[in-house]
Amino acid sequence: MSVIAQPRLDADFDRLLELLNGRRVAVLTGAGVSTDSGIPDYRGPTSPARNPMTYQQFVGDPVFRRRYWARNHIGWRAMDGSRPNSGHRALARLESMGVVTGLITQNVDLLHTKAGSRRVIDLHGTYARVRCLGCEALISRMTLAERLDAANPGFAADATASGVEGAPDADAVIADTESFRMVDCARCGGMLKPDIVYFGENVPKDRVAAAFDLVDDAEVLLVAGSSLTVMSGLRFVRHAAKHGRPVVIINRGPTRGDEFAALTLDVGCSTALTGLADAVAAVGGLR
């Protein structure tokens, strides 16, 4: 039944089907599931070293904040234009077939929603909204883009004229950001921040509770494309293992959660997830 290309993974793939058979599956995804859509990750085997901006840097230093908004003003457009890959579509298919009960994603790219997944918890928020830290008003990223374009005429065109390198979390690699003009909340004049959970910032409690409920309602936790380096994702793996739910990890390279896993597959997410969805469809479901 195995449809993964690498022969050495055939036995592991059969084991994967065995673990999922007849069980409700919750899914946790990380950046590795989106790399085939052209979105770079932080910790993949071939990823360059990156230093993500922390919440403290963003709110405490206008230089860091200006640098972020200048880079994001270019990078968010690439993320907005990205499209789901076969891995995203496979997870949506598995949900439609009744195998996957819901999905927690650490990504901010909305690609699971674009692919058709219905029950998605965007653990770290999304690139498409901006929040005022003063009055809590929410605006779309497109609305902010229009305001930033007006405040920085020609900046986007000049920055992209010679090509720019994309970076995770909807920003881009731009060296000259000193001339970039930021804008504040149009309602109260407060500081604007992407509706994304930064490093050093807590995930909202209601979102965490909903994610734990999703794991508790399932019988297996499938992790796809996450190194589980940060606790925001690892806690769900530990929780599942503690309560006797098998954990399966599909990821290029080792993860921090491997010791809790019943099975690990060192293979690309698009390959493995598409193979899984195809195998399930071939036998009319796993139930």
Main features:
Rossmann fold; 10 helices; 3-stranded antiparallel beta sheet; 287 residues; disordered N terminus; 11 strands; SIR2/SIRT2 'Small Domain'; alpha/beta; 6-stranded parallel beta sheet
Characterise this structure.
The protein is of the alpha/beta class and 287 residues long. The protein has 2 domains: 165 residues, Rossmann fold, CATH 3.40.50; 105 residues, SIR2/SIRT2 'Small Domain' (2-Layer Sandwich). The protein contains 10 helices and 11 strands. The strands form 3 sheets. A 6-stranded parallel β-sheet has the order 3-2-1-9-10-11, sandwiched between helices. Strands 5-4-8 form a 3-stranded antiparallel β-sheet. It has a two-stranded antiparallel ribbon with strand order 6-7. A hairpin with a 3-residue loop joins strand 6 and strand 7. The longest helix has 20 residues. The chain is elongated, with a radius of gyration of 20 Å.
Quick structural summary:
The protein has 287 residues and is of the alpha/beta class. It has 2 domains: 1-39 and 84-124 and 203-287, Rossmann fold, CATH 3.40.50; 49-81 and 125-196, SIR2/SIRT2 'Small Domain'.
